[in-house]
Amino acid sequence: MSENPFEVLKEDMENEEVYLKVNAMHRVRVVATLLGSDKIKSQLIPYFETLLKKEDDEVLFALSEELGNIAQIIPNQSSCLLPLLEQLAGFDETVVREQAVKSITIVCGFLGDNEIANTIVPMIIRLASNDTNFTCRVSAVSLMCPLYARAGNQKEKIRQKFTELCSEETPMVRRAVATKIGEIAQFMDKIHVIQDLIPVLKQLCQDEQDQVRLLCMESLMNIAKILNSGENKTNILPLIIQSAEDKSWRVRLALSKIFADLAEAVGKEIADSSLIQIFSNLLKDIECDVRVIAVKSLVRFIKFVSPEKLNLIVPLLQLLSKDPFSQVKQNACEVIGQIASLLPKEYSQSKLQQYLIDLMADDNQDVRRNAAKSAGQFAAAIGPEALNQFVPFLKKCMDDPKWRVRKETMQTIIQLALTVKNPDVFNKQLESVFVMFLKDRAAEVRSMGLSQLPALIATYKQEWAVGNFLSKCVETLSKDVGSLYRINALYAIQQIAYSVDGPVAQDRLWPIVQKCLKDPVPNIKFVSIRVAKSLSKKIDNQQTLNQIKQAINELIDDPDRDVKFYAQEALQN
Amino acid sequence: MNNKAASSKQTPAVRQQPQAAATASQNRTPQPIIQNMARVTDPKHVPKEIRDQFLKKIHFCSQPYDFNDDTKNVKEKQERSQYLQELFDLLKEPNFVVNLVVPHLDLIIEMIEKNIFRPLPILKKTATNGEIGMEDDDQLIDPAWTHLQPVYEYFLQLIVNEQPDVKSLKIFITHSFIQEFLELFDSEEPREREYLKNILHRLYAKLVPRRKMIRKAINDCFYTLIHETYKFNGAAELLDILASIISGFAVPLREEHVIFFKTVIIPLHKVQTCQFYHEQLLRCSMLFLSKDPTLATFLVEGLLRYWPFANSAKEVMFLNELLEVLEVCEISKLEPLIPKLFKRLIKCIAGPHLQVADRAMCFFENDYFLTILKSYKPFTFPLLVPVIAQIADTHWHKVLQESLNALKTILKEIDYQAFDKALNNKDPKYLYIIQDAKNQKKDRQKIEEKWKNLTKQAIQKNPNFKEPIVPYSDTHIVGEHNGLNNGNITIL
After folding, report:
1. Contacts of A11 in chain B (CB under 8 A)
2. How far apart are CA B405 and CA B389, in angstroms?
3. What pLDDT is attached to residue B22?
4. Does the pLDDT of residue B410 top 60, yes or no?
5. What are the average pLDDT values for consecutive 10-residue runs of chain A, which has 573 residues?
6. Which of B138, B240, B137 is nearest to B194 (CA)?
7. What helix, strand, coil percent values describe chain A, rounded to 5?
8. Is B454 part of the contact surface with chain A (CB cutoff 8 Å)?
9. Å between A364 CA and nearest CA of chain B
10. Cβ atoms < 10 Å from Cβ of A162
């Protein structure tokens, strides 16, 4: 029972529903494999031709994609697919022609350089010269980029056509060119980039449509990457200056977005001498959206300029930290945190510390949150001596009404504690803030503290864990506070148990847990059972072990189902 | 309320006058130009000092200020609006216009350009984030609008004014001017768009030599909407202008206009934000059809092709339009579209959305449509009857069930024999539409089996063969397969 694959395809394409036709179209590669190259040419391609006129865009989209797959089946003869693809590349529907362009690129991968020069280049030129359909010209622009490198002696022609399209009246084509000009530059010899592309790039950067100018920004960066410092100075820098003063804030925003990458692309020398000044203006832009994005880029930008030039940024940061728009301040916090490690300590302390401290008390919770985070980085950069100035404010942040702020603060404290690694500093400054997690109202904050406890114990050792910290836990347990706090404290004790040796667990921890096993709240009872279980793994003393067993045994008939369950489970293994 | 809105629309200038007059009398120091001009005996020779005063005021009005912040440059802004009022008053005297305004048209247009050609702001609702899910009915207001409005009013009156002739205006209305002007239509401020519409309309009417260029620029605007951005606030206003442009087209239509109909008007239906301008689009379409009824079949084809998916509100609009367009169609030309058309209608009737079904049922109350139905009886009856008969018995909604039964009766009355024959058809072609997914799967079994076999063969022939992934199956999400860029999808 051998079916004729071509007939099956045709039968399925007779279907009424578009989605079934799309499915059928995606199975074309089955048919193509079975038919072989001769029949693909004689049957399949003429059949596809008939589809072009009548089928829905969805089906044609699938066809465009599958033609690329068929090319892989008959790599040596894939050029027979080109006439179809050329038609599809001129279609009205955007997704269809974009897909067709992709498939043409696949086909070109199988063609020799000779064929590229003799078949593909004329096709591109044909598409680019189609005056009635701008869609053809847009597709031509997309095709020029990947194929330029292989165009051989036809390169000249493509370059000429490309620059011609830059002066198009149709804005759609100019937008396509503005997007691709950075890409095609990667494949060109530098001399052509400078001679041919830079002049049109200049022109596009002054386009009457802000959309076109906006699209140029990314291309500007890509071209800057391939030029050397001197060439960038004469060619790219003027365009950056001009764009930074563009009357459309959308263009300035696009520029702000890529500013850090741009700085990286043009190199330190230009960044130091010119970009800082330009960027300063963007940071002071009247449009708040531009400032928000500019400050965001600033975080990365500061890494690409020399440290000695950074003091130009500092006054701006002071300004930005007082910005009326909270998102600006939010991002400014981040920069302050980062820049501290790049500036001389005393300088950042005298110029920025107070601003950061003010931000920690901002009206906006997101600002406070970011400020708390940056305070950690800032303090870490300055060293332990900055801590005593920050700790009071961090403590205040732990009283913040918003738990997200408290959580961030907790994390900051922990990070600091883990970086300073100095028991003295920790005991004097940080510990008192850290233990606040035990009494926090929000579960998120409590579990945050809990999750980092093992790392802290590893750093500050058993002495701290069973000393000061344990007493805080006991305090929480003994005071008549909500059961959730007691559970949290119990879990903290469990963490301590993991890191101490047997005798300590037996003498210091077990008595506490023993008491908790008799707590009136069922949840505390079963958490205690689990903690007791972890303790028993540490303890060698048979007498204590029996005590533990005994205590759990007493709970086996507890009226609460869960307590009963955990007690049974604990005793079983 | 309505009255107030209407009057403010008609005469915004008149409403402002008393206020402006009051401010003018307060600051008497710089004498208004109009009074100085009134004293000039020979209007052909305007004294230099008056001319200088005039130019100074135009220059002053060209200065940019931050209109978003009311606390900045308060004095200058006040002065500016007073000057604008003076310039505006000058337009009322033909004498002054000829001798003072027209010779300096270049500076005046520059002043207008400097004011209105600006990057459009994104209007922010409020500084604080609004509650999510809260309906906000308040219109967004551009704080700069109060300062822009007089410029627009001045521009409008300048164009309306008889004195500046086509020749002198023409040189300023260049391609780039029009392109920048059209970009402003994307403004979120409806009053601004209203002005833009009126001004562009007058420009088009007045500047005959520029008409083709304006039309082309509008085309580009729509191409961008269709092919790239999918959203453009001023689409409705531009279509309004087009409507009056279209009504001016000579019959028979030129090829250029027919291309416009096919490449702009029809594809505009597929844009996701079509709801916002559908009313105007429909008007343009109908105007085209009134000039050339043969275009109707193309539009029907387009509607069926771009039928909305998962958007019932848009579906209802499409149904309304479809019926209207069908009435223009010549019945004999419809033949190739009949299966698609009736399949679509059956889908709507049998679909889960009541309003859509109801709208589709309305087709059968239309006499012209019934004539189409009758003319293609051999096609339509086998399509319609089995489905209608079945859902007339089972439909969940009582009212619709009743009208389905009524439709059954109508169909019976049209041709009893054909009805019976279609009902007893062993293999009704479209019954699958109302079948559940399970049954549909069964129907597919045979061909799926064939595909499976073929795939096996293909793997035998080529061990490296990669089995195709079909996008529409139970486990795949179509969007993912197609790699659709979700950034293109506008969520309304």
Report:
1. 447
2. 8
3. 42
4. yes
5. 78 81 87 85 88 86 90 85 90 89 90 86 89 88 87 85 87 90 88 89 88 90 88 89 89 91 86 86 87 89 83 85 87 87 82 86 88 86 79 86 90 86 82 85 88 87 83 82 86 87 84 86 88 85 86 86 88 77
6. B240
7. 80, 0, 20
8. yes
9. 10
10. 24
Residue B327 in contact with partner chain A when CB distance is under 8 A: no
Question: Pick from B66, B457, B472: which is nearest to A19 by CB?
Answer: B472
Please tell me the predicted confidence (pLDDT) of residue B478.
53
pLDDT of amino acid B261: 92
DSSP B25-49: HH--SS--HHHHHHH-S-TTS--HH
Structure tokens at B440: 């549909």
Query: In 3D, which of A448, A545, A552, A537 has the Cα closest to residue A500?
Result: A537
Structure tokens at B125: 């609702």
Buried b (16+ CB within 10 A) or exposed e, B213-249: bbbbbbbbbbbbbbbbebebbbbbbbbbbbbebbeeb
Please report, as a single letter, which amino acid is at residue A234.
T
Write the DSSP string, A75-110. Answer: GGGGGGGHHHHHHHHT-SSHHHHHHHHHHHHHHHHT
Beta carbon pairs, A and B, within 8 Å = 98
**Rounded Cα gap, residues A285 and A291, in angstroms:** 6
DSSP characters for A134-197?
A: HHHHHHHHHHHHHHHTT-GGGHHHHHHHHHHHHT-SSHHHHHHHHHHHHHHHTTS-HHHIIIII
What is the residue type of A455?
A: A
Q: Which residues from chain B sit within 8 angstroms of residue A2, using beta carbons?
A: 457
Positive/negative CA dihedral, A485, A488, A494, A496: negative
Task: Find the closest chain A residue to B222 by CA distance.
Answer: A172
Q: Where are the beta strands (DSSP E) in A468-536?
A: none
Q: So what's the ipTM on this one?
A: 0.73
Alpha-carbon gap, residue A470 to A367, rounded angstroms: 34
Residue A411 CA from chain centroid, whole number: 21
State how far Cα A263 lies from the chain centre.
Answer: 20
Q: Are the beta carbons of A26 and B470 closer than 8 angstroms?
A: yes
Helices and strands of chain B, counted as H and E runs: 25, 0
DSSP output for B89-127: HHTT-HHHIIIIIGGGHHHHHHHHHHHH-SPPPPPPS-S
Instruction: Identify whether the C-beta of residue A181 lies closer than 8 Å to the C-beta of residue A223.
Output: yes
Alpha-carbon distance A301 to B404, whole Å?
69
**How far from A480 is each of A474, A483, B12, CA to CA, in Å?**
11, 9, 72
Please state, as a whole number, how many other Cβ atoms lie within 10 Å of the Cβ of residue A309.
Answer: 15
Angle at B203 between CA B200 and CA B207, to 5 degrees: 150
Residues B430 and B343: beta-carbon distance below 8 Å = yes
8 A C-beta contact, residue B384 and residue B344 = no
Locate tokens 């050609």: which residue? B117
pLDDT of residue B287: 93
B116 and B110 Cβ atoms separated by less than 8 Å:
no
Identify whether the C-beta of residue A116 lies closer than 8 Å to the C-beta of residue A150.
yes
Total length of chain A: 573
Q: In angstroms, what CA-CA distances link A561 with A525, A526, A527, B235?
A: 12, 10, 14, 67
> Rounded to an integer, what distance in angstroms lies between the CA atom of residue A358 and that of residue A393?
9
